[in-house]
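Render Winged helix-turn-helix transcriptional regulator in 3D.
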Amino acid sequence: MKLDRYDLKILEILSRDGRITKSRLAEAINLSVSPCWERVRRLEKTGIIEGYSARINAEALVRRTPVWVQVELKAHNAASFARFEALVHATPEVTECVAVGGGVDYLIKVEADSIDAYQRLIDGWLTGDAGIERYFTYIVTKAVKRPVPGDCLKDLG
């Protein structure tokens, strides 16, 4: 699907404010309400807009300890990767996980109740069937930069 400047502006605005009214959105992109809303519906139907949600400040609800972990597996085959990735999906404390190249297999963000809770999680993985050869733990001391809604669109326009 080819996106024009109106579509990109709609995506930018909705990524920052999914609750904006139809009329304010139309005004912000200099279109009348009907054509603007038709564009939004088209973006939804094509799957470019997957849904709308609220950004929740998790720290306001419960204080979690963020930890980044580098993981290298013992075996490098499809079954080992699939087993480990299934474990990651089944672990609610894991909030992000990416497979990477360059000597390490995965970078994982764990948000645990405490450092002790994090260590118990890792100990369980090591004594279980996770297939971990070695891991390195990095305790987050402060967030320097976080994702900003709509930033993914800046290179499209």
